[in-house]
Amino acid sequence: MQNRTEIRDLMPASAASLFARLADGRVHSGAQLADALGISRQAVWKQTGALREMGLDIKARAGRGYQLARPVERLDESLVNRLVKSAAVSATVVGAVNSTNQSLLEARAGHGRALLAETQLAGRGRRGRSWVSPPGSGLYVSLAWEFDCGLTRLAPLSLVVGLAAAQCLRPLSGAPASVKWPNDLFIGQAKFGGCLVEISGAAEGPCRAVVGIGINLFSNRAMGSVEQAWTTLEDHGNNPGRNRLAAALLDGLASALEQFEADGFAPFHAEWDQYDALAGLPVRVIAGQKVTLRGTAAGIDKHGQLLVRCDGQIKTVAGGEVSVRVD
Ligand code: BTN
User: Could you report how far apart the first and last alpha carbons of the chain are, in Å?
Assistant: First the structure.
């Protein structure tokens, strides 16, 4: 039975209506917008500011009105649910939340509940970092999942999620998506997406996970604040459409999570090499601010630990609080 706890949409209704009007990418005059939305021109101007603050690229065309930097295919809850094939998944679409992961966790969302947001006001990344989430130019999706296998067996779950995302994105977009251990989504040496897996439960009993994926679809000026080398799916492949992509990601995730619970990590281990962004590259492993290991990346072991060849020996690196950089 789906848990349908309400999730509060933090995008003001007038900002959401304005976004919907502007989404076609044409120029809209302030007067037309005010008329269509039943608000004053002053209110249009205010909501334009609110959307800009969320990261939406809105241009002011002198004497003509407002226009998005590019048209946006808005997320459509009924379309996503129609496109999703997995019977376990039920998706909710909102304009804005702080973080789709956080909202599902707070709502104690049940098995298969998915949440997609046009924008996240405080998107969460791994290791306490933030995830820049401007409206329309990315995909921010989380899925709640319940497992009976105990926390101990879930250790490689974050790799499973990254692999499932890359496996779904390659055929759909044509972009050569790969996974940088443990679960960064890469094309070449630049990141275009990331996964955040948050798990709670008993070591040997029932557990719940919220798995979140963020993908950069198109460039956006808000991405300027990202420090790492980044790229977008559009720079390397075709644009499958945000709703199609969201549905395919949810299906890919659901079937990977089902397989992982049934068969463990072995089938994913077997696929890893085809998606490994680090294979054969010189890397350094960093814990906190300290470089703890330097060597050549040599795949992963059957537990999902990174293997690094160093002075003729293979060393294993467990996930958690380490990061890996290419030297
Ligand atoms: C990372 O690479 O640091 C992980 C980024 C994960 C971002 C996604 S966007 C959807 C979900 N909600 C969040 O707050 N974070 C994840």
Answer: 49
Residue 303: pLDDT over 90: yes
Catalytic residue among 4, 41, 61, 325: 325
CA separation, residue 307 to residues 177, 180, 194, 319, 323 (Å)? 21, 13, 21, 11, 13
Q: For the chain, give me the number of helices (H) and strands (E)?
A: 8, 14
The pair phi, psi for residue 49, each rounded to 5°, is: -60, -40
3-state SS assignment for residue 315: strand
Q: Which amino acid type is present at position 280?
A: G
Which of 131, 158, 198 for mutating ligand 1's site (highest number of atoms within 8 Å of CB)? 131
Mean pLDDT of 12-40: 96
CB 150 within 8 A of CB 201: yes
Helix (H) or strand (E) holding 143, with range, is strand 138-147
Query: Whose alpha carbon is nearest atom 16 of ligand 1?
Result: 212
d(CA 293, CA 317): 9
Residue 142 has pLDDT above 80, yes or no: yes
pLDDT digits 0-9 by tens, 41-67: 999 999 999 999 999 999 998 889 999
